[in-house]
Amino acid sequence: MENNFTVPTMAEITAKGEQIDILFWVGCAGSFDDRAKKVTKALAKILHHVGLKFAVLGKEESCTGDPAKRAGNELLFQVQAMQNISTLNAYNIKKIVTACPHCFNTLKNEYPNLGGSYEVQHHTALLQDLIAAGKVRLKDGGTFQGKRITFHDPCYLGRGNDVYDAPRSLIEQLDVEFVEMNQSKKNGLCCGAGGAQMFKEAEKGNTEVNHLRAEQAISTQASVVATGCPFCKTMLTDGMKHHNKENIQVLDIAELVAQAADFK
Amino acid sequence: MMVLFLPQILFTACLLLAVFLFAHKASKILRNIKLGTPIARNDNKLRRIKMLVLVALGQSKMVKRPLAGFLHILVYLGFVLINIEMLEIVLDGILGTHRVFAPILGNAYFYLIGIFEVLALLVLLACVVFFMRRNLAHIKRLSMKEIAGFPKNDANFILIAEIALMLAFLVMNATDGIINGEKFWVSQYMQGMFASLSLDSLHLVERFCWWFHILGVLAFLNYLPYSKHLHIMLAFPATYFANLEPKGKFDNLASITREVKIMLDPSADPYAATPSEEIVHFGAKDVTELNQKNLLDAYSCTECGRCTAMCPANQTGKLLSPRKIMMATRDRLEEVGKNIDQNNGVNIADGKSLVGDYITNEELWACTSCNACTEACPINLDPLSIIMQARQHLAMEASQVPSAWLSMFNNIENNGSPWAFSPEDRIKWQQEDGK
């Protein structure tokens, strides 16, 4: 998917003296991870087509500090947080959307107490609003019609922030056969990446968390596993590879909506 | 004359002794909990009361596992309601009366005892099922190595004690019924077993059961502080003081905020914000560095293991078990408490600590911070909070982190990303073709 438009940075917006509706917080995974970059592009495409005035921070964006905090390095977390807050406040940012539940959780819950209060939305919630407002229309016939789709709850979206319905209602709009895994919503099994596990080898055990979760997804006989987190996407994709089930696609909700949307 | 009042004197003495001993031990537990750092959980009183009513009184999270939840509600309801009968037993014991409420309540008394008997029977049956389930059904969380020894014996002892107490209550009513020509709802079916006894023997059995029941209850009261069964009391404050924030939100350490502000603002006065001469710890190495809610949680945990059963690390064979974190915290806190008792109120360093001696780094590093444990806990305990504070100690004070995390820290510090990419490349996702 190639976008034929360019997303401006806040520096460019400010230089032109313009205002934005919403800041797109891309996140480190969304910026650097090949699989997550596709999600970034998909979300940018949707935001562009609905006519939202949005921008990114570009090189001024820095890690929210989430993995440092969860690994126990509170000092590094707060240094990151305060630097980001001073950037965000300097641009007078009011609304933020992000496709990463870890960034979402940190920006929404852990920044206010350090001086950064913003209206933060996970992209699934924003997409739900856009569809409800009729701004995103889905193609006739349904791109995914008849497909069996399951949803993996990212911990920091679901249990962490009680967002369970937005991604599910989006999937239901796609006219697919939605199926829940045995462990879902509040009981959803982690993908294994949270708590900074993404950045080290797992401790010794008898299997990997992502292998177990992929197994649960496979047993639903879904052909698409949807999720809303770049780390979950990586872990589950690897899990599918482990079980030789690469025919099962692991896709972000934004990718599904961008493919199914009728952008003329 | 003395002989006439002997049972009353004996009873009152037992009652006072039991209450005194319990109060003494309870004050020790309260002191131990207060060894933790203070935590502000007095906001939102209405929401907190609602949580207490829903989760502790209403057991809304117990029924997530329907069979165990249903049986637990039976035992709990029975326990609470039969305690109304305890009031009569205590009054009879002190006043030397027999069924003091009977003349006051008239006909209603018969039905009340009938209801208590039905409840006693249900409690008894539920405890039998619980006992078989715990010992014969091979449920993983109830047979794991971490609860071998005292924790498992503790659980079985409680079940057997409850069965014995309920039996004593029913036999007491059965024999008393024969003596006085009453047929209570449940115990009437047990009267056949005692029909051949003489009147004296019936009185003896009835009195034995009466004393067994009341002394059993008083002994049970004093066993609670040593047992996982303490949750029948502490579940209420534990849910009241539970975290009301979104589970994903972790506290920001205020001591760190001060440091960071000084670091980032050269004009800040480094001495202005230093609150006291107290030593500031980053994270928790030992129980005294945890907060008071963590310590209350440790005493409230009933070791059901629902947290561990839902933990992704534990499900995949890693060492981490949230239940074991709670048990380790309580064990270490009890040890610190004993240390204080033996040293005239001073906690003399014993060279041990929670992290290191009771909980290993490997356990702590296995956590994905997914909150499955806090969601699974029927009384909203928070093992994750303890794990995270221990991790803070490892990362910021002990400098013990996996080397991959050190690289991640370095990358964030130098590149603003956990991976070693240049900030300049953050915008590149726009240009590359599909990659």
Report on this model:
The complex is a heterodimer of chains A (264) and B (435). By secondary structure, chain A is α/β, with parallel strands linked by helices. Chain A is built from 11 helices and 8 strands. Chain A folds into 2 domains: 10-128, Rossmann fold (3-Layer(aba) Sandwich), CATH 3.40.50; 138-260, Rossmann fold (3-Layer(aba) Sandwich), CATH 3.40.50. Chain A has helices at residues 10-15, 27-32, 34-49, 66-70, 74-90, 101-110, 123-132, 165-173, 209-218, 230-242, 253-260, and strands at residues 22-25, 54-55, 95-98, 119-122, 148-151, 177-178, 224-227, 249-252. A 4-stranded parallel sheet of chain A has the order 2-1-3-4, with helices on both faces. A 4-stranded parallel sheet of chain A has the order 6-5-7-8, sandwiched between helices. In chain A, helix 9 packs across helix 10 (230-242). The longest helix of chain B has 32 residues, at 2-33. Chain B has 435 residues and is mainly alpha-helical. Chain B is built from 20 helices and no strands. Chain B has 2 domains: 6-33 and 65-233, Fumarate Reductase Cytochrome B subunit (Up-down Bundle), CATH 1.20.950; 254-415, Fumarate Reductase Iron-sulfur Protein, Chain B, domain 2 (Orthogonal Bundle). In chain B, 64% of the residues lie in helices and 0% in strands. The N and C termini of chain B lie far apart (98 Å). The interface between A and B is large, with 78 and 70 residues.
Terminus-to-terminus distance of chain B: 98 Å
How many individual domains of chain A? 2
Average pLDDT of chain B, to the nearest integer?
Answer: 94
Task: Characterize the main sheet of chain B.
Answer: none
Q: Determine and state the CATH class of the largest domain in chain B.
A: Mainly Alpha
The unreliable regions of chain A are none
Q: Percentage of helical residues of chain A?
A: 40-55%
Mean pLDDT over all positions of chain A: 96
**DSSP strand content of chain B:** under 5%
The Cα radius of gyration of chain B reads: 28 Å
Q: What quaternary form is this? A: heterodimer
Sketch the topology of chain B as an H/E string, one letter per element.
HHHHHHHHHHHHHHHHHHHH
How many DSSP H or I helices of chain A? 11
Q: What class do helices, strands and sheet pairing of chain B give?
A: mainly alpha
Largest interface: A-B, 78 and 70 residues
What form of chain A results from the Cα inertia axes?
Answer: globular
